[in-house]
Amino acid sequence: MATPLPDWVVCPQGEGVRENRKRSFPKNSVGLVEWTSQGIARVWLIGKDEEWDIPIEEVEQIDVTKTGDKFAQKICNVCHRLLSVEHFSKNQRNKHGVIRRPSCNRCRTDIDKRAPKSSQAKQKEKERPEKGTPFKCPICQKRSIVGITAKIVADHDHHTGNIRDFICDSCNTGLGRFKNGKNVLIDALHYLEERDTLGH
Fold first, then answer.
1. Domain contains 19
2. Does the residue 1 lie in any domain?
3. Among 112, 136, 170, which residue terminates a domain?
4. Which position has the higher pLDDT, 149 or 95?
5. Tell me, what's the pLDDT at 5?
6. Is residue 3 part of a domain?
7. What CATH number does residue 102 fall under?
8. Is residue 75 classed as helix, strand or coil in its secondary structure?
């Protein structure tokens, strides 16, 4: 027998009580009901990682498995609001149709503000390794032939926009997946150390 899904809800009003004060949070935030009592639902808002007390009539239960590119609504992977798919830019297309970005347009705008500084990017391009030359990625140490066996990209600090160095495309994607943050990488290292199945 399948395990029942947890009680996910969307909170369209964006209002509730936290720390004994009525406050606002982003409308259409998605959360998990922890308990209900006397007309109040204690909801953990995943996007804020906070518990809020919200009137039961102001929360709507949703089936999170029926959201995404194939449906009319999608949950942003940054702010965790349930929005119309039109709030997500088209990214690519496959045989199943259009694939949209995982983060909503508002969150993408914030992400794009941290794009590489144009002046530094132009200067760094002058130092780009030429196609067909050998390259060793400073992160993974993999040796490759530029533009032939690996794509080389100019990595930048997503907090400041400063260009750091050239790295392979795989490592650049990896840094992006880890939010370009040292703390997340350290957590990943701890995870691997704690679950090392080889016992080293």
1. yes
2. no
3. 112
4. 149
5. 58
6. no
7. 3.30.60.130
8. strand
What's the confidence (pLDDT) of residue 120? 76
Percent of the chain whose predicted confidence (pLDDT) is above 90: 64
CA distance 52 to 23: 9
Residue 95 to residue 21: CA distance in whole angstroms: 49
pLDDT at 20 over 70: yes
> Dmax over Cα atoms in the chain, in whole Å?
70
Residue 35 to residue 81: CA distance in whole angstroms: 21
Domain housing 40 = 8-64
Tally Cβ neighbours within 10 Å of residue 185. 14
pLDDT at residue 150 tops 80: yes
Confidence grade of residue 93 (pLDDT, cut at 50, 70, 90): confident
User: Domain tally for the chain?
Assistant: 3
Measured CA distances, 101 to 5, 33, 76, 89, 95 (Å): 25, 27, 9, 6, 17
- Sequence-distant (6+) residues with CB within 8 A of 57 are 39
Q: Which helix H or strand E contains 172, and what residues bound it? A: helix 169-177
E strands, the chain, are 8-11, 15-18, 21-24, 29-37, 40-45, 50-55, 60-61, 73-75, 82-84, 90-94, 97-100, 134-136, 143-145, 152-156, 163-168
**pLDDT tens digits, one per residue of 96-116:** 778 999 999 999 887 766 666
The amino acid present at 2, given as its one-letter code, is A
